């Protein structure tokens, strides 16, 4: 089992920045990809960014390319999402997720952290 705990959400003005963190505990010796999803009210959950175990492969949704950066520190079992140039449409609950490296199967979810961007 892998437990994921997000932190770093909050309220920010449009154009501002936030950095989300997700700390993993439990079965951390296995190789996992890590990802960030978000879900806005009335919308489906969408994948925002993904990073493989080594950190050399990343994916970003078109809506966040050039503004968000995903990174990880395997020594700290932590993944980060640096969010710059935030816009009101980025308002959502952000979830950390993990699954076996080399797959797209999400086996573990965090509890979510709220990000609210005011205009």
Explain the layout of strands and helices.
Layout (H helix, E strand, L loop, with lengths): L1 E6 L2 E4 L4 E9 L5 E8 L6 E6 L6 E3 L7 E6 L4 E6 L8 E9 L7 E2 L3 E6 L1
Parallel strand pairs: 2-11
Antiparallel strand pairs: 1-3, 3-8, 4-5, 4-9, 5-6, 7-8, 9-10, 9-11
In DSSP terms (H or I, runs of 4 or more residues), the helix count works out at 0
Terminal CA distance: 40 Å
Instruction: Give Rg in angstroms.
Output: 13 Å
Weakly predicted, low-confidence segments: none
Going by helix content, strand content and strand pairing, the class is mainly beta
Description:
- The protein has 119 residues and is mainly beta.
- It is 0% helix and 55% strand.
- It contains no helices and eleven strands.
- The chain has strands spanning 2-7, 10-13, 18-26, 32-39, 46-51, 58-60, 68-73, 78-83, 92-100, 108-109, 113-118.
- The strands form two sheets. Strands 2, 4, 5, 6, 9, 10 and 11 form a seven-stranded mixed β-sheet that branches.
- The protein starts with a strand and ends with a strand.
- The mean pLDDT is 95.
